[in-house]
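Predicting holo structure, magnesium ion bound.
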Amino acid sequence: NLSGRLQQVIKTLRGQARLTEDNISDAMREVRMALLEADVALPVVKDFIAQVKERAQGREVLQSLSPGQAVIQVVHEELTRLMGEQNSELNLAAVPPAIVLMAGLQGSGKTTTSAKLARLLKGQKKKVLLASADVYRPAAIEQLKTLAASLEVDCFDSNATQKPLDIAAATLDYARRHYYDVVIFDTAGRLGIDEAMMAEISKLHTLLKPIETLFVVDAMQGQDAVNTARAFGETLPLTGVVLTKLDGDARGGAALSVRHITGKPIKFIGVSEKVDGLEPFHPERMASRVLGMGDVLSLIEQAQKNVDLDEAKRFADKVKSGKSFDLDDFKAQMQQMRNMGGMAALMDKMPAQVAGMAGQMGGEQGDKAMRRLEGIINSMTPSERRKPEIIKATRKRRIAAGAGVQVQEVNRLLNQFEEAQKMMKMISKGGMAKMMRAMQG
Ligand code: GDP
Ligand code: MG
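Done. Tokens:
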């Protein structure tokens, strides 16, 4: 898949201390193939590669300390830019009711997404009305009513004997009289080439005057998804795209092409068939995910919120000054990690490489193990924590009894600590870069 292939390119690049034009060309050929195979549209691939190549051969990269890493950074930035730079929020700035019109092919996920959006907005304390004008597919209106009932959201009482335009007019009237904040208007699936059906949705648009007209499209359709979005956009003034079924084995190409080809931002992605499976779309985070870099941004946000900065600084100073690293420091480090949500939460967002290494400890199991280690350290006297080498057999038995563990576990902790101490020595001598290299093998 796309991620896997790009990660392979990254691995090769990262290993290179110096980059030549040939290195870059080889890497770009690989990236190009990976993108085409993921069904990214050809003009998008061409522009993208040209952009990355130009920057990769520029001073910014070649004069950097690790050119391989700098190229990866360029690829990441360009991927982000391709997808629209920033998250585009749902725009509801209209005289209420704000209308959201849903459009797309049959089976793309319009009805499901309507319900997901209603749930999201209800969570934001909005008074939401769902309505369906899908009078063509049997039971389509029932499907929306059932979803609405399960979410405890109101659904306008339309039925398949009515005309879609009449449903729209009645919905609007009802929503105004009952002071709804938002109306999510679900429609029948249609093809961009079906002139009668496209004329119908144009009329619905004229009547409803939606502030948002969302094109819902199945990511698994790859380039076709992008082409249908463009065709719809020629008839209907779309304001955004919802890319559904990204949880399946979608090749991912659609996410990369939509913005460039249609000029419309992806506003949400569907990540499961359940009603909570809708996420705001963040280009930067998607680029990280595609490159297997993990959701580093979320990780940093989390770290900034939860880490005790004074403690972190104290620790950094200690490491720099080459002072010895004792069991109290070891414990403080574990506590910091726990404040950040524990191993399980961290692993999800870590780059593939690091997560692989940490995987040996296991997410939730890692958390449990960490708590046991803390228990053992708590059972030690202050002098034992400062000078673990004084801990001999009888002391070990006392500590184990105090923490309610076996003596072997105390031994294991002391061994782990010794490893950590070695690592700290390495940092204070050779700096972070040396340690990272050692870890990457
Ligand atoms: P509509 O014809 O456009 O209204 O499509 P529906 O909302 O009825 O969805 C068609 C099918 O796709 C249903 O089986 C949904 O459960 C499924 N579906 C919709 N969105 C998603 C998604 O994000 N992920 C997954 N896995 N399935 C989805
Ligand atoms: Mg439907």
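The two ends are 25 Å apart (CA to CA).
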